[in-house]
Design a protein that fits this description.
Elements lengths: L1 H6 L6 H29 L7 H11 L1 H12 L4 H18 L3 H19 L6 H41 L1 H17 L4 H8 L8 H24 L1 H15 L5 H6 L5 H17 L19 H10 L10 H29 L12
Helix pairs in contact: 2-3, 2-4, 4-5, 4-6, 5-6, 5-7, 6-7, 7-8, 7-10, 8-9, 8-10, 8-13, 10-11, 10-13, 10-15, 13-15
Length: 355
């Protein structure tokens, strides 16, 4: 069996499914749901209404895009890759609130079973897509709805906890999602799977989404600013608008590098929930993007003008957005990192990015 799995390139590991597949799913979401949300926002301009038409189709394609991305990450053969699009559509549609999570779990099974039979028969063009879709479609019919219910229960719990203890939950969500952003896993996919957005009218999840944005921005802006001495402008841009994941090799060597951005996220999360009432009414995936392409703040702003936001937007909301996403994490991370440099916890070139 081990030899068979090796020959079929089926590697059962946390990295393959928890990092590679999850990260790819986020890219699939980005290429469909997230960009469609932006198109929908542009389509609110009367002269550009055709953007909204495109965006509406993009939303429908999210399940297909996620599944194909996951299959690609699992190095699926062509027929398995193409067949996974149908699997993703079914799983996402039947998964409801837990659509993205259902797509992730079910597509993994469908792809791996498809890989097992790929090129094993003379009628591969029939057998491989049949097995892939049968496994994925069957699992979707049997379990996608339950996955959706589970996610809705988790979302309800997060929402309830956020409304009961906005300070504590704002801190926890901000720190945890911020750390996930820097780790080699997908914070965007996690936020999408948990539905951290108020698009469905849930204020608690909207607050959780705002706290998640705060945490992600704190880590990206924090690492970008505190490593400016070593990496200059190129590092500022690549981490501040790209990804703080670039610091992972350095974090493995010196875990104390986590301290400034974690403290910054622990401050900005409660500020977002308790002071500025920053809420996410854009796509849930934006909650886990931080300043990557500025998509976290853009998601907040798009939610303000998409007809769902429950209150009028004022100058105080704009001020909070700028302070939470950029100014406060930059000042806090730089100041704390300076103190850690002076006590020797951060040494010269500890934050240097590889060439």
């Amino acid at each position: 069996m081990k030899e068979f799995l090796k020959r079929k390139n089926i590697i059962i590991s946390a990295k393959r499914y928890g990092i590679d597949a999850l990260g790819a799913m986020a890219l699939g979401l980005f290429g469909s749901l997230l960009i469609a949300t932006i198109f929908n926002a542009i389509g609110l301009i009367p002269a550009l209404a055709f953007f909204k038409t495109i965006g509406e189709y993009g939303v429908k394609a999210a399940g297909c895009a996620m599944a194909v991305a996951i299959a690609y990450a699992l190095q699926a053969p062509p027929l398995v890759l193409y067949s996974s699009a149908l699997v993703g559509f079914i799983a996402n549609d039947l998964g409801g609130a837990g659509g993205p999570l259902a797509v992730l779990i079910i597509t993994v099974f469908a792809v791996e079973f498809g890989k097992m039979v790929s090129k094993e028969t003379k009628v591969d063009i029939l057998v491989t897509p049949f097995v892939t879709v049968f496994v994925g479609g069957g699992l979707s019919v049997l379990f996608a709805g339950y996955i959706g219910k589970l996610v809705s229960y988790v979302g309800t719990l997060i929402s309830w906890a956020m409304l009961q203890q906005p300070f504590v939950m704002g801190l926890v969500v901000s720190v945890v999602v911020g750390i996930a952003l820097t780790l080699p896993i997908s914070s965007a996919a996690i936020c999408a799977a948990l539905g951290l957005s108020g698009m469905g009218g849930d204020v608690g999840l909207a607050m959780a989404g705002g706290a998640a944005v705060a945490g992600c921005c704190a880590h990206m802006v924090g690492f970008a600013v505190m490593s400016f001495r070593e990496n200059r402008w190129g590092g500022l841009v690549s981490q501040g608008i790209g990804t703080s994941m670039l610091q992972m090799p350095n974090l493995v060597k010196n875990p104390r590098l986590w301290i400034p951005p974690v403290i910054a996220s622990a401050v900005t999360g409660p500020l977002a929930t308790c002071v500025f009432n920053m809420q996410m009414y854009g796509a849930a995936i934006n909650s886990g993007m931080g300043t990557c392409g500025l998509l976290g703040p853009i998601g907040i702003v798009l939610g303000w003008f998409d007809g769902v936001y429950p209150r009028a937007v004022t100058w105080f909301d704009w001020l909070g957005l700028v302070l939470i996403c950029f100014v406060i994490p930059a000042i806090l991370s730089w100041t704390i990192a300076l103190l850690l440099r002076r006590v020797g916890w951060i040494k010269e070139n500890d934050l240097k990015l590889p060439d």
